Amino acid sequence: MLQSLYIKNYALIESLEINFSTNFSIITGETGAGKSILLGALGLVLGNRADLSTLKDKEQKCIIEAHFAIANYNLKQLFESLDLDYDDNTIIRREILPSGKSRAFVNDSPVNLQELQELGNYLIDIHSQFQTRNIINEEYQIDLLDKVANNESTIQKFQSELKNYKAFQSELKKIVSEKETLGKEQEYNLFLYEELEKAKLKVGEQEELETESEKLNNVEFLKENISKVIAISNQEEIGLLANLKEVKSSLQKIASISPEFNELNERITVSLIEIEDIIAENESLAEKLIDDPSRTELVNSKLQVIYDLQKKHQVSSIEELLQIQENLEQKVVKFDDIDSLIKRLENQILSSKEILDKQALIITEARQKAAKIFIVQITEIITQLGMPDAQFEFEITPTEIYNKFGKDQINLLFSANKGSKLEPIKKVASGGEMSRIMLSIKAVLTDYSKLPTIIFDEIDTGVSGEIALKMAEIMKKMSDKMQVFAITHLPQIASKGNQHYKVFKITQNNDTISEIKLLTEQERVVEIAEMLSGKNISESAIIHAKALLN
User: Fold this and answer.
1) Which pTM value belongs to this model?
2) In the CATH hierarchy, which fold is given to the domain comprising 1-123+451-519?
3) pLDDT band at residue 189 under the 50/70/90 scheme
4) Which of 89, 368, 461, 535 has its CA 20 to 30 A from that of 165?
């Protein structure tokens, strides 16, 4: 339940703090006094979007803080799911900074608006005038039947399976589309893949072939120059080797004379060994150089295949061609496997559909039973509100279309008079009838909802006299099970509260400020008398007010 509300720098409110009690509380005040401001502030605590224009002083931040006693409402699991610290006495604070930035805290832990709204749904139901027409919405009608049927856990399972079902459908649609695309490309992809596979490409092969091709295409030139090297090196007496050996022999003779000559001798020895090795390798290479036109053609042909493939696929290396080959292989194989994947998804969809249909049937049957119970209960209450001939009927039609609540199409039919045909409630119920019907629904749901607090904002619109008194008695009875607030202009309802708060405006330092106070018994008499007769309170109005309060 809502224990207290603190508001600072919001609309016409400079600063106020008000404590609330259990049972049935009344809030009254002249039009424009600030009752809607209270609801607006409370709405911010429950996650409504902030508006910078609501700051009274644009230079100061706005603070709204609400304290809730929630020990009896089994909300620990909800707090865990929202990753919030639970406390039996939970504090929700909302701040709007002059910059326009908004911050929210639950038990001093920062939260976002979505989390605040989700938590707020379990704390307070603010029923404003325009929400009375919610009853004409099919989703609202489904929700109230599900509350009576206690369908929450079944619907959660249904929604979880529906999520799977839609995921399977989405995947199937994607795969079928992919199959169509791959089907158009399959023949070409297969051709490209087989062309690359036939080339038998290997990493590093291109470089090896290019080197070999260069040699094969220059055999005569290579032979000519290698022969010259060998000839110059091996000529007797004047050849390179003979001269180097002569130099080595001379240096060897003087090597022992000094370290410098010994070093020169060692260096010429090493050089001679290197030169001899170079000449021997040239001789070996000369033996291997063979003018082989067939090998030349084979190497050049393989290189041309590689160059053509690189040009076709717009790449410059064999590694890139091999990657393309792998990608093409995956597409070819995937196309071959796609039919089995489609079949598997179709089976998953059928299986999921069977589960959904079974769960939807359980939900439908529970709603049909709940509808009978609900109609008995609402008829009993609406009779007290001056509509003894009112009739209700839920038209529950199972369809083949899944929605987040099952497969049902629901329509609440209504007739206010005997002999009148039952019609959709949105077509035949007047404003005053809507108010009484909605109050009756809220009264019925008191037995099925674990909500701590409900606020009725002028639900008495369009009614008066004895009916207003009956509405007050119903709200008072509701307050035995939950905290009930009624914002009203009717003295019949105001007189039935356990406590009575008045919202009023004062002028202070040329500034208009809204205030709220808990009325004493005598102040209640005056307030209700004023509601009966206006500002000029008559003696009869005082007597009538006391009679209503008693």
Assistant:
1) 0.69
2) Rossmann fold (3.40.50)
3) confident
4) 368
